[in-house]
Amino acid sequence: MSVRRLGVALALALAAGPALAGTAQPGPVFHPRGDDRPFSESVQAGPVLYLSGQIGEAADGSGVVPGGLEPETRRIMERMGAALKARGLGYGDLFKCTVMLADMREWPRFNAIYAEYFKPGRYPARSAMGVNGLALGARVELECMAWAGGRHKRGRR
Length: 157
Prior knowledge:
Blueprint: H1 3-15, H2 17-20, E1 29-32, E2 40-45, E3 48-54, H3 69-86, E4 94-101, H4 107-115, E5 125-130, E6 140-147
Parallel strand pairs: 4-5
Antiparallel strand pairs: 1-2, 2-3, 3-6, 4-6
């Protein structure tokens, strides 16, 4: 075998190493929303479940729940909880969240409700920012990442 062919064979073997060894990791698993919007409810990549941003959208799809930040936040947490439960997870599995607020002055009110869903001292790492507009005129949006380490439920890719 020529040196060039040996080099090509070695490069191919290294690139395919995990697959040849039978240890290839599956690609991301997409969990669709169940409607025609162009994003998934969540995507599982290895032991991490990436949850799309949630707003306080009413169950009937008629828009954001009325009443402002408090009912929107409670609805967001319900929706986030349902998405986690569908994957065999719970709020305690969340490790990173990002909060987007239409008005940063509402941050303390958001925090008070958000904290109710976690054990004290077991809050996810978090970022919060003020934004200039959210989908459907929402006051707040929350996106999170959860540790699924071993409790992976397969969905549609």
